[in-house]
Specification:
By secondary structure, the protein is mainly α. The chain is built from eleven helices and five strands; from the N terminus they run H-E-E-H-H-E-E-E-H-H-H-H-H-H-H-H.
């Protein structure tokens, strides 16, 4: 049989089989969604990514879990929120990185969360109270429960296969123009279209995370305050912000959506069996016991990162 005909007949069947095999039930919404990865694979992927990230941080001499007071705080908040999440049997862990120059927090698939000291830095940080810290951690645990990372990887797989199939077909047909076209499309897709989290993912994590923090006994009114602060952040702050803030910086849409769902979260907060003392100011914590070496900090500042 002609190779070109064989490809045209077989490739659509492969795509159909892949798409049908991706269907799974969303743990948060209960609706059907597309995810080719199992929950255990989420955990394994997250552990692998976490090890790679820690290795890079250690190479840069970033202090990891070396501040007992702040480590205890982030662990407590994470445990309280994880206990009321939709998936409670994940190996939730949190790592505290004592680098005040990194304004960041992010989650790995499967339950590991990483929080950086710069998140509540007095000058450049974006959270000021324990409630606001809970809003950020709740947002990240929501990403884990919604399985946004592996859903995004699944979304990327199908168009990548289609484009790769186009490249193979062009090669079979020995069509240089077609090869250039599909090669260019792959570059555009990988460089401009594919992002870690979509706008819908971020808005869902905002809403679900606010519900989680409320169930855990943290005041959900803190959540929109964080995004309002981001929307009014200085250029210097925005340049330093990564992960949860980088997809849609200065976006009041997130604040509007949170305020729309705030009454639901407040009802969950009112029904929570425990109310946490989340109004405590993070600035009142004792000074950090460990800091990144001055030489490293200066080098980082000079590099513009």
């Amino acid at each position: 049989m002609d190779r070109s005909l064989l490809f045209r007949l077989g490739f659509p069947l492969v795509l159909l089989a892949l798409a049908s095999g991706c269907a799974t039930t969303d743990f948060v919404t209960g609706q059907q969604t597309q995810n080719i990865y199992s929950l255990q694979e989420d955990v394994q992927l997250g552990q692998d990514f976490y090890k790679e990230t820690v290795a890079k941080l250690k190479k840069g001499n970033s202090p990891i879990d070396q501040d007992p007071v702040r480590v205890a705080l982030v662990k407590e908040v994470t445990a309280n929120i994880a206990a009321v999440a939709n998936i409670t049997n994940l190996p939730y862990e949190i790592t505290y990185v004592g680098d005040p120059e990194i304004v960041n927090a992010y989650a790995f698939p499967g339950g590991h969360v990483m929080v950086f000291e710069g998140l509540w830095d007095e000058k450049e940080g974006l959270v000021q109270t324990v409630d606001e810290l809970a809003a950020v951690i709740g947002h990240e645990i929501a990403h884990v429960n919604c399985r946004h990372s592996t859903e995004a990887m699944t979304r990327e797989m199908l168009p990548n296969l289609i484009l790769a199939g186009g490249m193979i077909y062009a090669s079979i047909e020995d069509d240089d123009d077609l090869q250039l076209l599909f090669g260019g499309l792959m570059l555009v897709h990988d460089g401009l279209i594919v992002t870690k989290y979509s706008r819908a993912d971020e808005l869902e994590a905002d809403r679900v995370g606010m519900a989680y923090m409320a169930r855990a006994g943290y005041d959900p009114a803190a959540a929109p305050r964080v995004w309002e602060r981001l929307a009014g952040a200085s250029d210097n702050q925005v340049e330093k912000v990564l992960s949860i803030f980088s997809t849609h910086p200065r976006d009041f849409k997130r604040v509007q959506e949170l305020r729309k769902h705030l009454p639901e979260a407040e009802a969950l907060y009112a029904a929570a069996p425990v109310k946490r003392d989340g109004s405590k100011k993070l600035a009142d914590l004792p000074p950090p016991k460990t800091q990144k070496p001055a030489a490293q900090k200066a080098k980082k500042k000079d590099s513009g990162s």
